[in-house]
Write a structure and sequence with these properties.
Elements: H1 2-50, H2 63-72, E1 91-96, E2 107-112, H3 126-143
Antiparallel strand pairs: 1-2
Length: 153
């Protein structure tokens, strides 16, 4: 009788472990699906956003005016790094270090300003890094808008 009781407990534990494994795998695949949707949207949006133009008054606009113009005018999403001298603008893209297991590794963000050769992000100037960071911020915002941002140095 004691052996049957222990066998029943063992079978119950096996069933619970199997249910927990199925729940974990379901949650894992859902998490991967949500991440993939966000990553695909952001990675396809970042290059056009990196090329957005603020026009010839680019340096005289207040930051709030720049931010509002970028977010409110979709037709403006063309040329952040584009100018008369550099018709194609810069290039920016995201890539996964490990596409099969994106949570085990990182995301590589590459931004190449116009008329410059490829460099690591660490070698870009402060202004180039700022433009790249804002492009990433706006690409994320285009996927899941937030009512406000808190930016600090």
């Amino acid at each position: 009788a004691k052996e049957q009781q222990q066998q029943a407990e063992l079978d119950g534990a096996k069933a619970a472990a199997k249910a927990a494994t199925e729940a974990f795998n379901s949650l894992r695949s859902r998490r991967h699906q949500l991440f993939s949707e966000a990553f695909d949207h952001i990675s396809s949006s970042i290059d056009p956003i990196y090329k957005v133009s603020l026009g010839p008054r680019r340096h005289t606009l207040e930051p709030s005016a720049v931010f509002g113009r970028l977010l409110n005018e979709r037709r403006c999403l063309q040329e952040l790094t584009k100018s008369k001298a550099h018709q194609l603008g810069g290039t920016a893209y995201l890539s996964l270090e490990n596409p099969d297991e994106p949570f085990l590794h990182g995301i590589k963000y590459t931004a190449m300003p116009p008329s410059k050769r490829f460099r690591d992000m660490e070698q870009l100037s402060g202004g180039e890094k700022t433009i790249a960071a804002l492009s990433l911020l706006f690409a994320i915002h285009s996927f899941k808008p937030s009512p406000f941002f808190v930016l600090d140095e």
